[in-house]
Amino acid sequence: MTRRRRRDHGDSRPFWRGLPHHYADAALGAFMGLLSPLGAFLLRYWLADPLLRSLWVRNELQYNAFFYAYMALGTGAAFTAFGYALGLRSERQRVSNRMLSERVDELHLKSVTDALSGAYTYGYLYEVLELEIQRTMTEKSPLSLLILDIDDFKSVNNSHGHLFGDRVLRETAETISANVRSNDILGRYGGDEFVVVMPGADEQTALHVAQRVRSAVAKNGYMTTVSVGTSTYGGGSKETPADFLHRADLKLYQAKRDGRNCVR
């Protein structure tokens, strides 16, 4: 209970911070409007004869109190209405901008996501790989790559139809995503191939994750398996994404030659 009270106390904010913007702006306008009589009074006080200021104050409060009250109510109401209208317009603009930003993010995500598998597109994955190689060269940290190919996928399509084949692709992508690390990036390489970019992963980590993915796919209930090729970039020499992918591709072909459903 003590820990929760501390957290609630830490999250507490002044009440006006929780007000909608148009209410807060209206309150600010009202406050500024109510200050206008004080400003007028101080200005007139400054213009009065210094020798007669004490007498001026008594006369001013006695004979012009209605004037100051009228000014307070009039300017307060005007500033309140102006603040409310300005705040309402500003709040609507903020909502519109937020919705537009969310829509842009949604469209961007769709543009870089493969519609069938839900993995990233090859184009986006290539850009990510370029950035990760640059980061690896700068930080001298490892970077690994997996290329996974569904074994005999053509026969799956021929035997069960393309709709079933599409389902196998989706389920395989979900299985891969569920068994890689949280910071790994999954993309569809094309056809029945997927690529996983693994920032900070050395060769042993890549092999361990690849074996875990291979085993999970073999148990996903679709009687399909994957062959996996791995490649690790140590950051010692400059290498293009195409070179990096090619080395993993060669390992994938080796896995195919060695009987499929294995990691190389």
Describe this structure in words.
- This protein has 264 residues and is of the alpha+beta class.
- The protein has 2 domains: 19-111; 122-258, Alpha-Beta Plaits, CATH 3.30.70.
- The protein is built from 9 helices and 4 strands.
- A 4-stranded antiparallel beta sheet has the order 2-3-1-4, sandwiched between helices.
- Helix 2 (21-47) packs antiparallel against helix 4 (65-111), helix 6 packs across helix 7 (162-179) and helix 7 (162-179) packs across helix 8 (203-218).
- The longest helix has 47 residues, at 65-111.
Using brief descriptors, characterize the structure shown.
264 residues, alpha+beta, Alpha-Beta Plaits, 2 domains, 4-stranded antiparallel β-sheet, 9 helices, 65% helix, 11% strand, elongated
Please outline what is shown here.
This protein is an alpha+beta fold. The protein has 9 helices and 4 strands.
**How many helices?**
9
Q: Which CATH class of the largest domain applies here?
A: Alpha Beta
Give helix and strand order, one letter per element, not per position. HHHHHEHHEEHEH
Could you give the order of strands across the largest sheet? 2-3-1-4
Mean pLDDT figure: 83
The radius of gyration computed from the alpha-carbon positions, rounded to a whole number of angstroms, is: 34 Å
Give start-end ranges of low-pLDDT stretches.
1-11
Give the biggest sheet: 4 strands, antiparallel
Strand content: 5-15%
Give the beta-strand count: 4
CATH architecture of the largest domain: 2-Layer Sandwich
Into how many domains do the coordinates divide?
A: 2
CATH superfamily of the largest domain: Reverse transcriptase/Diguanylate cyclase domain
